[in-house]
Write a structure and sequence with these properties.
about 450 residues; mainly beta; Tachylectin-2, Chain A; Jelly Rolls; 8-stranded mixed β-sheet; 6-stranded antiparallel β-sheet; 1 helix; globular
Length: about 450
């Protein structure tokens, strides 16, 4: 009996510890979608917001050739995150055919640039593309690829304090760097340098940040030419080196992907390290973004990071899809159009012009697994307005059993309407809204995850 009681107490204690640990855990950061290669930034015009630009792994595939698009995430407190949806895809890039691999971003002369690697249709060579947006969350419009860069995988764009821009790139046991022209559209040929010999075990994925006047180049590499990748770093007095190898800052860890790819940033007086793993899927081709606090010792060496589920602390990620983004975000406007005359919208505007029943707005939701969400739609309407909602080709009415009309109440200003719970599937999902009696302005679709606890 005593033994049984002890076992029961141990069991209860174990459950309590597990519950407490779960309540604090939040690695991976965005469990609803497979994303990798995180590029993290705090833009100078908004120091309160942290942005993560990431590649997207398609669930159920067994290779990286199917990577097709990119996502952007943001937070103002490391607790509440927003997935802004698809911001660029291979279909949006006329010169590219496949392989939407690692990306970076930069705010340059008032414009946001996405810097990304895709395979060129004409040659099959990896190029370093450029796309622009007037908003940090996109969507982005392709403007071509950077001239002078061949096999430009894993690009990282670093802007120094003197406003000189540098491009770093690398793959297959190599790393290169060069100054960029003032329009970012080409490297300055005479400044191109190979850094491979300076970076012990380098394989790909360079990233540069500055700490106490020194330039830190971090990168994934192969120890003894064996997978999986480990995160290393080197330090220099100048952006183009020479670099002195310093060591490992993320060693091998359980359930990591075969690859790794990271970025380092200072945010609200804390240094953070972002990278990816296969903690959810257990499959190297289905990865998730991870993050941990990063520390330096008194000599400027990066202290070793051992990934844990705690990460940056407990957080939640909602999905915010701007209706007006349409095709650029994987959705569609049919018979409707965008406008910005009514004030109070989010993003770049809203969708209006629902003149007949067939007019609609459709948004794309991408998920790693089947999942339930609470759907809210932000709108304005001069009178009570009936709408039809179709989720993945099925009429949706906010009920699992009986049909009923959905009526958005009159609202002179933009407000959210709680539609109800939607069951979404693994992969691509489409939510389509039509209006039966018009005169409605649709601002955005907000999806909040349903807690499983």
């Amino acid at each position: 009996m005593i033994t049984k009681n002890i076992k029961n107490k141990v069991c209860i204690l174990g459950i309590m510890v597990a519950i407490c640990f779960s309540a604090k855990a939040q690695n991976p950061l965005f469990p609803h979608i497979y994303t990798a290669d995180p590029s993290v930034h705090v833009w100078e015009n908004d120091p309160n917001t942290l942005w993560v630009y990431a590649s997207h792994d398609v669930p159920g595939t067994n290779h990286h050739a199917t990577m097709f698009d990119y996502h952007v995430f943001s937070t103002t407190d490391l607790k509440s995150w927003t997935d802004h949806g698809r911001v660029l895809s291979v279909d949006d890039v006329s010169w590219a055919i496949s392989h939407a691999w690692a990306i970076d971003a930069v705010l340059w002369k008032g414009t946001y640039y996405l810097v990304y690697g895709m395979k060129e249709r004409a040659t099959g060579m990896f190029r370093t593309g450029l796309a622009t947006s007037q908003r940090p969350e996109g969507p982005f419009t392709d403007i071509g690829f950077i001239k002078g860069v061949e096999w430009g995988q894993d690009p990282a764009l670093f802007v120094d304090e003197d406003s000189q821009a540098y491009l770093f790139w690398g793959s297959s046991n190599s790393c290169f760097a060069a100054k960029l022209t003032d329009d970012l559209k080409a490297i300055v040929p005479e400044t191109k340098i190979e850094l491979t010999s300076q970076l012990t075990n380098v394989f790909e994925g360079p990233w540069v940040h500055k700490y106490q006047g020194k330039y830190y180049l971090s990168y994934p590499g192969l120890q003894n030419k064996q997978w999986p990748e480990i995160m290393y770093y080197a330090v220099a007095d100048k952006p183009l080196g020479p670099y002195e190898y310093k060591g490992i800052y993320i060693p091998q860890f359980e359930k990591q992907s075969g690859t790794n790819h990271g970025s380092i940033i200072k945010y609200k007086n804390n240094w953070l390290a972002f990278y990816h793993s296969a903690w959810i899927s257990g499959v190297s081709e289905s990865r998730n973004v991870m993050a941990d606090f990063l520390e330096y010792d008194k000599k400027g060496a990066i202290k070793m990071i051992h990934p844990t589920k705690v990460g940056l602390g407990k957080s939640v990620c909602t999905i915010l899809l701007e209706a007006e983004n349409g095709k650029a975000a994987g959705g569609k406007l049919d018979g409707t159009q965008t406008a910005d005359s009514q004030k109070g919208f989010t993003g770049r505007g809203y969708v209006t012009g629902f003149d007949i029943d067939e007019d609609y707005v459709k948004v794309l939701v991408q998920l790693a697994k089947d999942e339930k969400f609470k759907l809210r739609i932000r709108y304005a309407a001069p009178k009570d307005t009936k709408i039809n909602l179709i989720v993945n080709e099925l009429m949706y009415n906010g009920s699992t059993s009986t049909w009923k009309d959905i009526v958005f109440p009159k609202s002179d200003n933009f407000n959210y309407f709680d539609v109800g719970i939607v069951n979404l599937r693994t992969g691509d999902n489409y939510i389509k809204l039509t209006s039966q009696n018009g005169n409605i302005n649709v601002d955005n679709f907000l999806l909040e995850p349903i807690s499983e606890n």
